[in-house]
Design a protein that fits this description.
The chain has 405 residues and is mainly α. 72% of the residues lie in helices and 0% in strands. It has one domain. 41% of the residues are buried.
């Protein structure tokens, strides 16, 4: 079974994921942990700050990025299967596409130190390397990667040898160099520090926290979702079975994540063990969220409302990069320096406003053009030729929005 062409529910998931990312980035002040002194604010505002932080990170922390990664693999399958039907081998061109993504990611990294496009461009090579393997083999690879084999090795070593020290990449100096420029630097000095130190620090963090293995697993899983049409209505019974496993798994894993530190004192065992547990918990909750959206899309009247976010999902790359540019302008010293004025609660409201502005721009743009600006540039550079950009007729997105409205 194969799933080809533009899939509206995938754009819904992509749009919701980028919305979650922008809200998280906003309360983090775009990876710039500087906030105003709130010691004198009212109790309810302090509660609002805590509730927003804890609530968003519980629901979206690690999950919005996971959905984004899942859809990256799904998109690869759509592109690769289309080209294969035409008798072309897309794998080499996809590798060139990843090189282009690396360039886009580094441009994005000038503004935002925790961006994930560079990581995607590096880990993404696993897709052309594995796309012709059998499903059973790919599922074994996914399972092994999700279990964080490197962390398992660290746990075993530290358990057998009490003197063993779990290795970690020393990145505090790199983060500190970026923070100093974000706090007091000009645009050029901030961009330089972000490129020289921020990207290395971000990749080091991803390696130390299991994101490399998890991202590779999600890429392959997204490819398998496309291969077996798991975003179609016919697969809802299977998603029901996923929920039967994912819901209890999440509560067990989340409980273990909270309890294990009370029983293990050796940090060299505890740290990698918590990475394993928390990454599996995030994966379980991500599956629950994806299944929830699919059931809402195919089985309820919510489809009409969910369809409204399709334009935002269609321009996810443009939205992801522009939110980094605008976010750094808003919060860093080279821009408006709002890090010293906005609390967490106020920051999430500003993030919601930024989303609404982006959403309106997406609606306007896609009513006139076939692709978002960065999506179009990436496509043209991938194939080294120009494509028609102006919209000439009604497409699936127009029909979905007309239905929703």
């Amino acid at each position: 079974m194969r799933q080809e062409g533009r899939v509206d529910v995938a754009d819904v998931l992509r749009g919701l994921a980028v919305l979650g990312i922008i809200l998280l980035h906003s309360i983090e002040h775009f990876n710039f942990g500087s906030y105003p002194d709130t010691s004198g604010q009212s109790a309810w505002l302090t509660f609002a700050d805590r509730a927003v932080w804890d609530g968003l990170f519980f629901l979206l922390g690690g999950k919005a990025y996971a959905v984004f990664a899942l859809l990256f693999g799904f998109s690869f399958f759509i592109q690769e299967s289309r080209r294969r039907e035409k008798g072309e081998d897309f794998r080499g061109r996809f590798c060139w596409r990843l090189v282009l993504l690396f360039i886009i990611g580094n441009f994005n990294g000038m503004f935002f130190t925790a961006e994930i496009l560079v990581l995607y461009s590096l880990v993404g090579f696993i897709l052309p390397l594995t796309c012709r393997l059998r499903t059973r083999t790919l599922l074994w690879i996914v399972a092994i990667l999700l279990l964080q084999p490197i962390c398992i090795w660290f746990v075993v070593r530290a358990t057998l040898d009490p003197a063993y020290i779990t290795p970690a990449i020393p990145s505090s100096q790199w983060w500190g160099a970026c923070f100093n420029e974000q706090y007091a630097g000009s645009f050029l000095s901030t961009a330089r520090a972000n490129l020289l130190y921020g990207q290395i620090a971000s990749l080091a963090w991803a390696w130390d926290h299991g994101r490399v293995c998890q991202t590779a697993a999600l890429f392959i899983l997204g490819m398998l979702i496309g291969r077996h049409s798991w975003f179609s209505a016919s697969r809802l019974p299977q998603w029901g079975k996923v929920l039967l496993w994912a819901v209890p798994a999440f509560f067990v894993l989340h409980g273990l994540d909270q309890m294990v530190p009370n029983f293990i004192e050796n940090r060299n065992i505890l740290s990698p063990l918590l990475i394993i547990i928390s990454s599996l918990a995030n994966f379980s909750l991500m599956l629950i969220l994806v299944a929830g959206v699919l059931f809402a899309w195919y089985c309820t009247k919510a489809q009409r409302r969910l369809a409204l976010i399709i334009p935002y999902g269609r321009m996810s790359l443009t939205n992801y990069v522009t939110q980094s540019i605008v976010g750094s302008l808003l919060y860093y010293n080279w821009g408006f320096g709002l890090h010293a004025h906005l609390t967490i609660f106020e920051s999430v409201l500003l993030g919601a406003l930024l989303f609404l502005i982006q959403y309106a721009a997406c609606r306007w743009w896609l009513a006139r053009f076939t692709h978002g600006p960065l999506e179009y540039a990436w496509k043209c550079a991938t194939f080294l030729r120009r494509f028609p950009l102006k919209r000439r007729h009604t497409t699936n997105i127009d029909k979905s929005l007309n239905t929703a409205l």
